[in-house]
Design a protein that fits this description.
Blueprint: E1 7-15, H1 18-37, E2 40-45, H2 50-56, H3 64-69, E3 73-78, H4 86-100, E4 105-111, E5 129-135, E6 145-148, E7 156-159, H5 165-180, E8 185-190, H6 198-211, E9 217-222, H7 223-232, E10 239-242, H8 244-257, E11 265-269, E12 277-281, H9 298-310, H10 314-329, H11 344-354
Parallel strand pairs: 1-2, 1-3, 3-12, 5-10, 8-9, 8-10
Antiparallel strand pairs: 4-5, 4-11, 6-7, 11-12
Helix pairs in contact: 1-9, 1-10, 1-11, 5-6, 7-8, 9-10, 10-11
Bound molecules: 1,4-dihydronicotinamide adenine dinucleotide and magnesium ion.
């Protein structure tokens, strides 16, 4: 992680739909917390979105990645809008950013907050607090493969998985280092009984890296059993490390355990600090509620807190997370997705008052 610095350049991509509404709140919260902690954050606001695609034919300009490279971090709302196919918005912006900037960690903290009811009886506030660390650039989501004999009875599709020693080592190292700052427990998702080449390799490399982190405990669980344990005993996890596909599925399951997609944050990290990392709520642009002022801004605000943490501003980040906890605990400042009646604006005002 980059050393603490008092001035950071942030590229802001609000995107589409409620992305613009929740990022506006995150910006105000960042403004308040920066004033309090004497941080200088400068912002470049970028209108890259499906709106731009519809008017100019691309989600971002041809030199978009170069523009972003001049920043310390990227804060993103969400992209996606009817009229632009979802794979176009994803592959035209998010995937190129994740891959060009080698954001090989996808980090998803999961916490059951006081006042947010989990659909699980076993998931009580204060007890469920873990992080899913997903490998974000290789594994099952590779571009290697193809289709042959299209339309004939002998048509075939082949999709190769790519697991590299470097790729598995660095994601395992990230998970062990994170666990060392938390409760010291890493759970590795595997399926070495069914997937007989890549998953035993994953297990071997993860175990090797575990040996280099003697203070941390490692357990391996098959992905199917692990999915069941997320539901039955979510409080037993600290850091869960998984390949791209397994981590994708587990992190959505975990977000559901926490009670609402509206509060879930994520970070796409290049832990080496060579490239900017990107911070975004887990939710999408929610066209069904866009423009009505009811979007829950917590996912975006918590993502902004992860950004502060990555930039080395741990105390400022902790203030933001504490303010989130207070607004969620108060029924008057819960949005409709959490069974409340508060508007986005009211949550924003409450967060600003707390900070
Ligand atoms: P979505 O997350 O936008 O919405 C799913 C449901 O959750 C909707 O009913 C929505 O109203 C609700 N919801 C989501 N966020 C909320 C919030 N902050 N507060 C209150 N309610 C919230 O997922 P959906 O509908 O599958 O996708 C809509 C568009 O967003 C699509 O174009 C999709 O491709 C895009 N998308 C973009 C993502 C990104 O930019 N990272 C991630 C997921 C979807
Ligand atoms: Mg997903």
């Amino acid at each position: 992680m980059p050393a603490s610095q008092t001035s950071s350049r942030i590229a802001v991509i609000p995107g589409d739909g409620i992305g613009t509404e929740v990022v506006a709140v995150a910006r105000q919260v960042l403004g308040a917390v920066s004033a309090r902690h004497d941080l200088t954050l400068t912002y470049t606001e970028l209108d890259w979105s499906c709106r731009r695609h519809l008017s100019e034919g691309a989600m971002m300009p041809a030199d978009g990645l170069e523009t972003l490279a001049g920043h310390d971090a990227i804060l993103l709302g969400a992209v996606g809008w009817p009229g632009v196919a979802d794979h176009v918005s994803l592959w035209g912006l998010l995937i190129p950013i994740r891959r060009a900037f080698r954001q090989y960690v996808n980090l998803r903290p999961i916490r059951v907050f006081d006042g947010v009811e989990s659909p699980l009886r076993a998931a009580r506030a204060g007890e469920v607090d873990f992080v899913v660390v997903r490998e974000n650039v290789e594994g099952e989501y590779s571009e290697v493969g193809g289709r042959v004999n299209r339309g004939f009875p002998d048509e075939q599709a082949i999709q190769e998985s790519i697991f590299t020693r470097a790729g598995v080592s660095r994601i395992a190292d990230y998970a062990f280092e994170l666990a060392a700052t938390r409760r010291g427990q890493v759970t590795s998702a595997t399926k070495s009984n069914g997937i007989v080449h890549t998953m035993p390799f994953w297990d071997e490399v993860v175990a090797e890296r575990a040996a280099a982190h003697p203070g941390v405990r490692l357990e391996s669980e098959h992905i199917d059993a692990l999915a069941a344990k997320f539901v039955l005993q979510p409080q037993r996890f600290d850091v869960v490390v998984a390949s791209n596909l397994f981590g994708d599925i587990l992190s959505d399951l975990a977000a559901a355990v926490a009670g609402s997609i509206g509060i879930a944050p994520s970070a796409n990290l290049d832990p080496t600090g060579t490239y900017p990392s990107m911070f975004e709520p887990v939710h999408g642009s929610a066209p069904d509620i866009a423009g009505t002022g009811v979007a829950n801004p917590v996912g975006a605000v918590w993502s902004a807190a992860l950004m502060l943490e990555h930039l080395g501003h741990q105390r400022a980040a902790a203030d933001v997370v504490a303010a989130i906890g207070s607004t969620l605990a108060d029924p008057a400042t819960r949005t409709a997705d959490l069974g409340g009646t508060a508007k986005t604006e009211q949550v924003c005002e409450a967060l600003l008052a707390l900070i």
